[in-house]
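Running this now, will post back.
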Amino acid sequence: QVQLVESGGGLVQPGGSLRLSCAASGIMTSSYNSYTMAWYRQAPGKQRDLVASITSGGTTSYADSVKGRFTISRVNAKNTVYLQMNSLKPEDTAVYYCKGTQSILSYWGQGTQVTVSS
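Update: finished.
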C-alpha cells in the first residue's frame, strides 16, 4: 500500500524559510520515478489549491502566488519530493499536502501544518 508522509512544517516568522519533505513508501523506486508529484495547500475555510508540481522528467510548475519563492524538487533514489519555501508570508499559512499521481492512480499524504506569524 502506497503511503505518503509529509514532514518539515512548523511555525516561522514572515520572511523566513521552511523545507517540506514527502517520503513515499510501499512503492518501488522504479515505479516512483514515473509519478508526478505535487504539493497542495489548504487554508482554513478555503479550498485545497495546487502549489507546485514536478513530473517524472523533472518539469516543474508553480502557482503564481509562490513563483520565485518556492522550489519543488525530487530525489527519486529516496522516493522523496521536497518543497523549499523562502520569503514566507502570513498568507502562506495552511496545511500542506503531498500528492502522487500515476495514470489514474493518486495518493495523498496526511498533511503538515505551516504557520507564518510574528
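The mean pLDDT is 96. More later if anyone needs it.
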